[in-house]
Structures are given as C-alpha cells and as structure tokens.
Amino acid sequence: MLPLLLLLLLAAFLHGTAAAQGQQGLPSLPIGVNYGANADNLPTPAAVASFLAKSTTIDRVKLFDANPAFLDAFAANAPSISLAVSIPNAVLPTFADRSSGLDAARGWVRDNLSPHISAGANVTLLLAGNEVLGPTVVPDLVVALLPAMRRLAQALQLESLPDVRVTTPHYLGILAPSDGIPSNARFRPGLDAKVLAPMLRFHNDTGSPFMVNAYPYFSYNAANLNYAVFRPNAGVYDPGTKLNYTSMFDAQMDAIYTAMKKLGFGDGVEIAVGEAGWPTKAEAAQVGVGVEEAKDFNAGMIRVCSGGKGTPLMPGRKFETYVFSLFDENQKPGPVAERNFGIFNTDFTPKYDLGLLRQGSSGSPNPSPKPSPNPSPSGGGKWCVAKSGASATDLQNNINYACGYIDCKPIQSGGACFDPNNVQSHASYVMNAYYQANGLHDYDCNFKGTGVVTSSDPSYGSCKYVS
Questions:
Q1: 321-353: pLDDT as tens digits
Q2: Is 275 a catalytic residue?
Q3: Is the whole-model pTM more than 0.70?
Q4: How far apart are CA 355 and CA 359, in angstroms?
Q5: Exactly one of 131, 270, 293, 329 is catalytic; which is it?
Q6: Is-cis flag, bond preceding 325, omega within 30?
Q7: What are phi and psi of 50, to 5 degrees?
C-alpha cells in the first residue's frame, strides 16, 4: 500500500496548494482565450472586453494581430486583462536585418503598441509570427525568426516597455516523429541544435516562455478518444520514466519538456500553451466531436494548466495557456471543425460550462471547472461503483486516474473509507466521487467497462459516498 498512499498524499497536497492560491473568492485560473475575428456576427470589441473583465475569470487574451480597435477596447474596458499581440510572419525578415532591423522593430513598437499601452492596454506578450517552423516551412522566415525576436526584445527595452516579453508559437511537429512515449521525445534534427537551442537560450535569458500549440484533436482517432479528451482509460505506459499517461495532452506537454531538457533547458524555461481546444461540430461522419467532448477536453486541460495539477513530469506546475477559441468563426475556410472551436456564443452565453464565469454571472452556477475537487454528500440519487469481478490492475488504474482530480483522503490510512483496505472498496469510493463531481454522465462511470451505476447507496458506517 505504500506507493498508493504516497500517490494519494501527493494528490491531496496538490489539491490543497491549488485551493490556497485563489484570490478574492475566485478560483486560481490563470487561463486565457484566443480572440479571433474571422466572423461576421461577433459582438463589438468593447463589449467583448467588458464581458471578459466583469463576468469571467479569464485573465488573458491572445490577439492575432495588433488591431487598434481591439487594443483600444481592452485599454478602455479591461486594463486588468493581459494581452498577447501577434505580428504577421511576413514582417519578420524586416526585423531580422542586421543594419536596419532594430530601427524597424522600434518603429513597429512605437506605431502599434506604445500608444495603446499608454492608454491602458495591458500588453505582456509579443508573438513573433505563428508556427514559423512548420507545418509550412519558408526557409527565409526560419532564418529570420530568432534574429527578429532578439531585435523586438531590444526594441521593447529601448522604448521603455521592459515588461513585454517576446516569444513565438510552435506546432508540435517541431518534435521528431516518435511512438508517443514522452521519454523518447526530441526535437527534429536540423532544428534542435541550430534553431531551438539558441532560441531556448533567448527564452532563458529574457524570462519569456517557450510557446506551443497543443492539439490532441489533430492526433486522436476513435480508438484513443478517451485518452485524448481526459476520460478514464488504461493509459500509455512510459518505460523510460515508469509513468502511466492517461491524457494525450499530458504526454504532449511532457514530450516538449523532455526535448527541452535534452538541450539543457528543461527547468529553466517556462512552457506556455498558445492554442489548445476541441470543436463542438465537425463533418457529419466524424466521431468524437461534440459539446461533451469539447467540454471534457477543455476542462481537463484547464485542470492541468491552471488548476495546480500539472503533468506527470511537471507536477504542480502551471502553464500560461490560451484556449482556442473565444467564439466560433463562421468565415474561416477549411473543414467544418475550423469554424466551431468557440467556448462562448456571440450573446456571451457559454456553449458549455467550464466554470469560467464569475459566480452570479448568467449561465454559470459554479465558479470552478468541473470536476469539483472535493464534492460533498447530499444524500439520495445515483452512485458509481466498481463492477464485481473487475481486475485489481484495472481498478488500481482507476484509483490513480481519479485521485488526480478528487480528494482521496477518505481512503487513506485513518480515513473514513480506508477499511476495508482493499482495491475494490477504495476504487468504488473514488470512482463514485469522480462520477459525482463530473456531472453524473454515464460515461463518467464507465472506466473502460469496470464501473456500474447503482441506485443503492453504497455508504457504510462512517464512510459516506457523495451523491
């Protein structure tokens, strides 16, 4: 039992740490959103800025350009919200030029940032292009990327804006092809030593994050859907670290961390998530896309990035993160899914509850993302318990998974549900707590066929099952 107890104690510690970091009665949710405007039905920028500042716990917004109307709207209506402002890829060679690049960068900062920051816009990140290193590779842009970032960082210092950090978002294809095992990850040859090592040095020296666009959506299939959207699953075992991954997102983040560490920068540079999301609609025949999948993925990602859970190789760590996206964008080209990543409708009602609305705001009964870390007994209803005959290995996997999200102190030694001290009893308790906290959906009690919903209260003695 010792390894299990250590795991449960760690889960309880992380939960307590996350809970202690809330401010002003709100959950600690350093979570952001991507605010795109490729649509013809969106509310005004002023209305958007006001809504985010007054009605949500969202504390940062990523913009895809330096649109002055957007910057002015946030300056006037949401000066507390941090802004990440993007620069088009095509402009980067201008900043990279050895003789004139610094002057060009200073001019861009003066024209596009300084007036709005003076008016109150809280710009904290400047993004030099987007996915310059692929999937579409333009050699001139690759060569220009890091010099442009250096010139922009210098320009911000010279223009008295030292708090604005410079980074650039990468797609996960910067990693060499692998078998999905995080400990095997490394950056692609040709990019690792020549491009990414000096770039990581830049991030280390300037205190800016290494930003990745992490999309399990683009790597999932029908067989690994549960693994992709944070639903219970057997997981993927990493023999190199002896860790079991039950989330593709965790594996992707730890793969980036591992690749950075192999270049000597695993702990010295923060990782930020520039984009991560799941669509609510796709092609008619596509499985695994809908409101429930989008909710499950984004809620799970928020727990990892801003709820204090962290990843197996980075436990307790938080990541500056921008959910993709704030609204659906009905004018985007490409597949149906590209137009349906929004988490809010254009009337500001949530498409599904992620707990991002402030308590008392319309449409959200809860101030924190589900599942709740510590549900309370309410008596009566439905419960989830382990199936008789389920293997001890499967039930232990269920305990390991669920204890990352709910309070497992009751099954620790001395807890009300510790006795009987066996995996069947402990698994039933934590599987039910997870099921109750996550909204009582039948699939939340599936646990790969090892759980069953019952109407008979399994509580006994002082051990009370939440309901």
A1: 999 999 999 999 999 999 999 999 999 999 999
A2: yes
A3: yes
A4: 9
A5: 131
A6: yes
A7: -65, -45
- Has residue 88 got a pLDDT over 80? yes
34-84 residue pLDDT tens: 999 999 999 999 999 999 999 999 999 999 999 999 999 999 999 999 999
Token pair for residue 205? 């020296």
List, in order, residues 6 or more apart from 217 with CB less than 8 Å away: 228, 277, 278, 279, 297, 337
How many residues does this entry show for the chain?
A: 467
Q: Are 269 and 319 spatial neighbours (Cβ–Cβ below 8 Å)? A: no
263 in Cβ contact with 212 (< 8 Å): no
Backbone angles phi, psi at 389, to 5 degrees: 95, -5
DSSP 182: G
* Amino acid at residue number 392: A
Confidence of residue 3 (pLDDT cuts 50, 70, 90): very low
Among residues 303, 297, 284, the alpha carbon closest in space to that of 352 is found at 297
Domains (range + CATH), the chain: 31-344 (3.20.20.80), 383-454 (no CATH)
Query: Tokens 């990468």 identify what position?
Result: 170
Whose CA is closest to 101, among 145, 164, 64?
A: 145
Considering 159, 270, 275, 293, which one is annotated as catalytic?
Answer: 275
